[in-house]
């Protein structure tokens, strides 16, 4: 990307060193933690208006609503860190959800039979769709914005073709245990999502691929000049994102027991908003999966809180938009960016 | 939430564009047919082609409409695939352009069944059809100032469905199941959509007779299962045990509400839906849903084509029919547990055989307009 972006990355590293040394909290440190502070502030405000907000039951509800969105947000975080964008998630989720339900139902319809094979198959399918997405972007040299948007439409079309406008209902008690079986007040799917988050964090921080995402996002020309195969990193990034979209599809089906061509609806807005609100910079190189987690929680706490405090529905869209802007203002360091596009 | 804004902006954009295009095309179509020598005076047609113009092939609703149309053409001894499908894919321009092309191709010797995609688009379509001497029956979309009787025989009929009464009846069933007291929540459609407004109003109408029932909250679920599940879980936090009943504006949102309660281990709260999808009927039979409402798209698809066809060949003369035979409400069937099994047998497991010349038997009276019109 631009020189300013690599400057920003450099500043980020300086900020990290400062934090490690426990010096007086610098402006950068504050900005690093701002999303979490925004989240805590929201919880405090909503609780002050309606104490029912601060209850384990309600946190369980927010967690369930956040789980599929978190998987999508993690996937797209890798792409945004590279300085690209991926808009294919709604299509990928729709195809993955429908293909999963189709095979799950035709191979026995319960996790206790061979139908479990549908799960790894779906993850594989997510990877293949992501791979295609990445190849269209890199090989045909189409901007990721356009390539992924187009692939998303193809996905939705495919899902309509598979379902022919009908829905697949999954009644299996074992699979639905994802949302109905609870440990310490939270459904199983929440713990599985946290495990996926840890895996994503590991990939981001401790693998060469994860570090390469930052190299590409922080300064693509520099990375290329240093001998990094940038095109390969990009394709791998889209593939990895596809796997997380497939996970989102599994959680979405697990949550509602329905797979249909609109299973992916709304995930594009929620995930990208969350990632940005969480402090991942759209210009690349900054932020990571923990920011995605905080961002998803901020968006879902706002959505939940607005109804819980009894905000009239005609105000909710406006308030959501306003709070998103406030959150972005507080949680991204815009001073170091020379221009915003 | 975002869908609301997006839908609204898109709808507004489309409406403006469609209005301009449609008025241009409408004026054009007044000139073109005479230039091509269509015979306006032709009283009735011989063996006219039949077409259905509708939105898409991806939804069960339109699939049912088309299957009705195909069953009708079969009933007059033609193959099912002789029904011409004019699919507009949600575009009013395409809807009008397809119909004008079809009129050209058949030289006006045709009968058309049509949903104009949006209300302003109905006028240019009807004008083009009338100018070509062909026959058309419409459903759902037309403006309040457009009437079949202003076009002699060529604009045969318009059918739409009122959601007020069925929604009110479902609410009454819900309140009775709640024992006539307690709190109810409503999960609605996209707020500006006409069915969303009518279905909430139906609930409000029923509330008048139940002083001990309180409408705790009404929030949009945007016709979406996922959004409805979120809204339901938020209601549970805000109102908890106060919620004794759930009134949903359509079937798929009712699934979301049921799933949100299932995730919490809550059961036994009555829920009503709307649309009468096969999955919803199964849920009514199982007792998970208290009731839903069916608008019989199969019959609607068949009878709309039948009306246009029979007017075209002169079986009846539309201009001699009373207004309630030109503009009328379609049938609505309430489905509760008592009749769900019979309903499933009759309408889902088998498709009933209809008399396609009983044009008005199942209809629900003349369309009423707001007082300002």
TrEMBL record, chain B:
One of its GO terms (molecular function) is carbohydrate binding. The keyword Signal applies. It is found in: Cell envelope. PROSITE patterns: TAT (PS51318). The keyword Signal applies. It comes from the Bacteria. GO terms for cellular component: cell envelope. Residues 50-314 form the Periplasmic binding protein domain. Keywords: Signal. CDD domains: PBP1_ABC_sugar_binding-like. Gene3D superfamilies: 3.40.50.2300. Pfam families: Peripla_BP_4. PANTHER family: D-ALLOSE-BINDING PERIPLASMIC PROTEIN-RELATED. Belongs to the bacterial solute-binding protein 2 family. This is Sugar ABC transporter substrate-binding protein. It comes from Rubellimicrobium roseum.
């Amino acid at each position: 990307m631009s020189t300013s972006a690599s400057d920003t990355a450099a500043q980020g590293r300086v900020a990290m060193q400062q934090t490690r040394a426990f010096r007086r909290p610098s402006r950068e440190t504050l900005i690093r933690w701002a999303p979490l502070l925004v989240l805590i502030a929201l919880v405090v405000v909503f609780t002050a208006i309606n104490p029912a907000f601060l209850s384990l039951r309600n946190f369980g509800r927010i967690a369930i609503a956040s789980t599929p969105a978190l998987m999508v947000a993690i996937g797209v975080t890798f792409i945004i860190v590279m300085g690209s964008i991926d808009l294919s998630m709604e299509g990928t989720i729709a195809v993955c959800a429908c293909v999963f339900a189709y095979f799950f139902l035709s191979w026995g319809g319960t996790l206790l039979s061979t139908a479990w094979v549908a799960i790894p198959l779906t993850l594989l399918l997510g990877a293949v769709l992501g791979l295609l997405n990445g190849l269209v972007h890199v090989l045909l040299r189409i901007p990721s914005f356009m390539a992924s948007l187009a692939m998303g439409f193809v996905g939705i079309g495919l899902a309509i073709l598979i379902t022919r406008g009908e829905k697949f209902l999954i009644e299996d008690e074992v699979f639905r245990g994802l949302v109905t079986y609870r440990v310490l007040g939270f459904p199983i799917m929440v713990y599985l999502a946290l495990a996926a988050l840890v895996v994503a964090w590991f990939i981001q921080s401790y693998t060469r691929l994860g570090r390469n995402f930052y190299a590409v996002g922080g300064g693509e020309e520099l990375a290329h000049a240093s001998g990094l195969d940038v095109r390969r990193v990009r394709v791998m990034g889209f593939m990895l994102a596809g796997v997380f979209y497939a996970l989102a599809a599994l959680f979405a089906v697990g949550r509602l027991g329905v797979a249909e061509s609109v299973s992916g609806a709304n995930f594009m807005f929620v995930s990208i908003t969350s990632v940005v609100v969480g402090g991942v910079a759209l210009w690349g190189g900054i932020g990571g999966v923990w920011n995605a987690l905080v961002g998803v929680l901020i968006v879902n706490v706002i959505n939940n809180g607005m109804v819980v405090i009894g905000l009239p529905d005609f105000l909710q869209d406006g308030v959501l938009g306003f709070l998103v802007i406030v959150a972005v203002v507080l949680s991204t360091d815009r001073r170091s960016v020379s221009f915003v596009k | 939430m975002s869908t609301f804004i997006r839908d609204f902006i898109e709808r507004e954009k489309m409406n403006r564009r469609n209005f301009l295009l449609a008025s241009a095309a409408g004026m054009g179509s007044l000139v073109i047919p005479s230039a091509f020598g269509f015979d306006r005076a032709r009283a009735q047609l011989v063996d006219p082609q039949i077409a259905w113009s509708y939105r898409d092939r991806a939804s069960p609703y339109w699939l049912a409409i088309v299957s009705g149309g195909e069953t009708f053409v079969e009933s007059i001894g033609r193959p099912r695939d002789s029904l011409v499908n004019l699919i507009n894919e949600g575009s009013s321009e395409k809807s009008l352009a397809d119909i004008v092309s079809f009129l050209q191709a058949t030289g006006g010797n045709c009968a058309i069944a049509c949903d104009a995609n949006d209300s302003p688009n109905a006028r240019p379509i009807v004008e083009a059809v009338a100018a070509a001497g062909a026959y058309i029956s419409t459903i759902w979309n037309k403006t309040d100032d457009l009437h079949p009787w202003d076009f002699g025989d060529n604009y045969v009929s318009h059918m739409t469905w009122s959601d007020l009464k069925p929604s009110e009846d479902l609410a009454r069933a819900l309140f009775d199941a709640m024992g006539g007291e307690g709190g109810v929540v409503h999960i609605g459609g996209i707020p500006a959509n006409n069915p969303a407004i009518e279905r909430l109003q139906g609930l409000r109408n029923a509330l008048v007779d139940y002083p001990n029932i309180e409408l705790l909250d009404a929030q949009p679920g945007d016709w979406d299962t996922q959004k409805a599940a979120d809204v339901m879980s938020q209601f549970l936090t805000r109102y908890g045990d106060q919620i004794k009943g759930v009134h949903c504006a359509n079937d798929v949102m009712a699934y979301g509400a049921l799933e949100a309660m299932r995730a919490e281990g809550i059961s036994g709260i009555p829920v009503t839906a709307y649309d009468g999808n096969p999955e919803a009927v199964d849920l009514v039979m199982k007792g998970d849903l208290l009731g839903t409402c069916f608008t019989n798209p199969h019959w609607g698809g068949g009878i709309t084509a039948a009306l246009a066809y029979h007017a075209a060949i002169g079986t009846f003369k539309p201009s001699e029919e009373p207004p309630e035979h030109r503009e009328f409400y379609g049938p609505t069937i309430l489905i509760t547990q008592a009749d769900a099994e019979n309903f499933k047998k009759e309408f889902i497991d088998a498709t009933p055989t209809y008399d396609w010349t009983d044009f008005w038997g199942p209809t629900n009276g003349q369309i009423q307009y707001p007082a300002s019109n």
